[in-house]
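Lab notes, practical 5.
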Amino acid sequence: MSRSAGGLQPAGQSVSPPSPTAQWSDSHELIEFLLAALAGGDGGADPGDMPDLRSSTALRQLADLGRDPVPPRWSWAVRTWEPGGRIRLPAPALAVLGHQRGVARTVHGVCRRTGLVLDATRTDGPGFVVGPDGRLLLPAWLRRTAERSLLVGAEAGRSLVVVAPASVLDAIGDLLTAGRS
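Output from the prediction step:
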């Protein structure tokens, strides 16, 4: 087999034998069959053999994905309090409390079992100072816990910030894994 100067096969010569899986014919029968199928004529395919795509399980699942997820109400962070008993609040908590950098702000809160609930809209109850640097002095009872890690949650919708020992997550873990060995 001779090659052309550019390394390509001369016109009319085959590079390799035709593949048995890719054979085709110029027969007009195939073209007529395809044209009839496209025109809605009897192309030999029975539409009853095709699944109804509108009731397909996969398509229903895709339709379910189109719904917007419910946005989370709370923003959570885990923080370690400093030896002086202060905790640096995360940005979402500072925003909920209306903190402005460089300006101290007093917020009111209450103790709820194991955590402190601060409410930016409250004007009664004990006051807690969020310093100009965004740090909160923790109440003594919360500092006396053996834990240094605290869970801080902020919910903008109700202007609430929750500060609790990170061990409250243990209870959630136990609840989610109940019955598992």
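Observations recorded by the TA: Residues 74-174 form a domain with the Chemotaxis protein chec fold (CATH 3.40.1550.20). The CA atoms of residues 30 and 92 lie 67 Å apart.
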